[in-house]
Design a protein that fits this description.
The protein is α+β, with helices and mostly antiparallel strands and about 600 residues long. It contains 14 helices and 31 strands.
């Protein structure tokens, strides 16, 4: 065990984690030159296209240091705030972390929050300064920031470049020397933490685990702690670039297990694997429980695909444990699921993965957060869906979730960032100058306001310099109302939203205008209205499309034309009574991008 090192890489988005991981794989000879490609560990097409890591990946490397052989288990982590749950899972399985900071950009908001996560788990932190080869690198200034943040010595910071490979040998030596070997008793009863899982159509569920105590052998009878079910370990092994079989994995190591589980719901990420014959006393305290921040409905375009969609969601949940969902039905869209996501990017990725990996075309409703409503008789209800909102006449108060937002930006953009936050009902709590031209702003603001376009607008007004991170602070009473969208007097529940009363008129007007552009013209007039209860706050009309019934009359008496037009008028009246309006899929998405 003293020759094993488990470590992860934590950093802000786009600070070069995946590229540095490539160099580590290359130097240790884990991946041959032929197999090496840009971002080797990012195996989804989606990750390559967007240049972000969505999923943590584990890989084992062999390294010779001072004549001794070491086994290094690396877990690469995502950098975006929406995937912080993946980071907490990686941290739970490691003893050390490389804190990566871009030498040209300095410390950003997500760097700090990931660092605190690692410190809570008592991980050994190795500070690394990446992208030293860039002409815009400012190593001395960024080193000062890192010393202030970590309280480490300047000579502990390792300068590297993921692109050129400079400093990678020094980094590998530091991992071996500084990261402690895993502690655990190989002879105790088996206790292993499942930190990830994937679904293989041929082999069933493959679970990735870190053994804390004991050892697991091939064909052992293992038991899963939470579900209480037991299985035979058909195959175990370690995670190289391709999985490699082993006969035994003992304490301190990371590996995978295939036990013929076909049902996605039989396994839970965060569960403990133990032996059936000699179980351990208690489950491992894993990582933090997932807290969905944004809720939205996902519905199949064709209602017959409902069961298939459930199947796809369960398989996706295996791969991404931070997705939560429960069945719900909507008058406009039929049966579907109410899903909880960690943020808007997470929601976008899930929708894209459903389309790419499972060929499911889905409609997503307007996202919202969860509220608490207190009725006049004192009942407190949790509202995840605007359609569950109680009748205004029975409503006492509504509480909405607030967050503490941390924004780090250049001092030139402080004014525009403050304007944006105040427009989003934020209150400035603190303002700290980290260096002469970098400011950290702390705001308290409602979570609902950052759900839509906050992140995009923050990036555009600060020209990409601002970094953003948030943590929930609890619920506060707010003046919220439910806004319904009516088409020809019929309510479309998928477009309903809970919003602050002050924004109702503007938002109602914008949604109506947007829908007017997107809804195709019919043979009858369509009235689009935004309503607060019985009060209409905005209205737009899609004019009727007139079929040219007089086209066949060339010349002749006017009375023939009039007769045909009268006949058309009667038909139109009848049509308006039974006319139903089809809403294109873009209409649901367009509401999110109103600005």
């Amino acid at each position: 065990m003293k020759h094993i090192r488990n470590f992860c890489i934590i950093a802000h988005i786009d600070h070069g984690k995946s590229t540095l991981a490539d160099r580590l794989l290359q130097v240790t000879g884990t991946v041959s030159e032929r197999e090496l490609k840009e971002q080797t560990l990012d195996d989804m097409d989606l990750e390559r296209e967007r240049g972000i890591t969505i999923k943590s990946h584990a890989i084992q490397m062999n390294y010779k240091h001072n004549g001794e052989d070491y086994v290094l288990n690396l877990i690469d982590t995502p950098g975006h705030v929406d995937f912080s749950y993946e980071v907490s899972r990686a941290i739970a399985a490691c003893e050390g972390a490389l804190l990566l900071v871009d030498a040209s950009q300095g410390i950003e908001a997500q760097t700090i929050s990931n660092l605190y996560l690692a410190m809570e788990h008592d991980l050994t932190i190795i500070p690394v300064l990446n992208k030293m080869d860039l002409p815009s690198a400012m190593p001395e200034e960024v080193k000062d920031e890192m010393v202030d943040l970590l309280g480490c010595n300047r000579d502990e910071i390792i300068g590297t470049s993921g692109k050129t490979g400079a400093g990678v040998d020094e980094l590998l030596s530091a991992i071996v020397e500084r990261v402690p070997a895993p502690s655990g008793d190989p002879d105790a009863p088996l206790q292993a933490l499942i930190f990830d899982s994937v679904f293989n159509p041929f082999r069933g569920v493959i679970a990735y685990f870190r053994v804390m105590n004991g050892r697991v052998r091939k064909n052992d009878h293992v038991k899963f702690y939470y579900t209480g079910k037991d299985y035979l370990a058909d195959e175990i092994g370690v995670l190289r670039l391709k999985p490699e079989k082993r006969d035994e994995i003992s304490a301190g190591n990371v590996g995978y297990i295939i036990s013929g589980i076909k049902q996605a719901k039989e396994i839970k990420v965060g569960d403990t694997i133990t032996m059936k014959a000699n179980p351990c006393d208690k489950a491992i305290e894993g990582f933090e429980n997932v807290k969905p921040m944004v809720f939205a409905g996902i519905y199949p375009v064709d209602t017959d695909d409902y069961e298939e969609l459930r199947d796809c969601m369960e398989k996706l949940q295996l791969n991404d444990a931070s997705l939560t969902f429960e069945p719900e039905s909507s008058a406009a869209l039929g049966f579907g699921f109410r899903c909880g996501f960690l943020g808007m990017l997470h929601m976008e990725i899930i929708q894209e993965r459903l389309e790419r990996e499972f060929d499911m075309t889905v409609i997503t409703t307007v996202p919202n957060v969860s509220y608490f409503a207190t009725t006049t008789d004192g009942t407190r209800l949790q509202v995840n869906n605007p359609s569950d909102f109680p009748d205004p006449s029975k409503l006492e108060s509504v509480e909405e979730p607030f967050i503490n937002a941390q924004i780090i930006t250049k001092s030139d953009y402080v004014g525009s960032v403050m304007n944006l936050c105040i427009e989003k009902r934020g209150m400035l709590k603190n303002q700290v100058y980290l260096t002469a031209d970098r400011v950290e702003l702390s705001f308290e603001m409602p979570l609902a306001e950052i759900v839509f376009d906050f992140y995009d607008r923050l990036k555009s007004i600060s020209r990409g310099y601002a970094s953003f991170d948030y943590s929930p602070t609890g619920y506060q009473v707010s003046h919220l109302v439910k806004m319904d969208i009516l088409l020809n007097g019929d309510q479309v529940d998928a477009l309903s939203a809970l919003i602050h009363r002050d924004n109702a008129f503007d938002l109602g007007k914008k949604i109506c205008l947007k829908l007017k552009e997107l809804i195709p013209r019919q043979q009858f007039e369509i009235a689009i209205q935004a309503a607060l209860g019985a009060k209409i706050v905005a209205r737009e009309t899609v004019k009727a499309l007139r079929k040219d019934v007089t086209a066949k009359c060339y010349g002749g008496d006017i009375s023939r034309k009039r007769k045909l037009l009268e006949k058309q008028k009667k038909g139109k009246k009848r049509m308006k009574q039974i006319g139903s309006v089809e809403i294109p899929q873009q209409a649901f998405l367009a509401v999110l991008k109103l600005d």
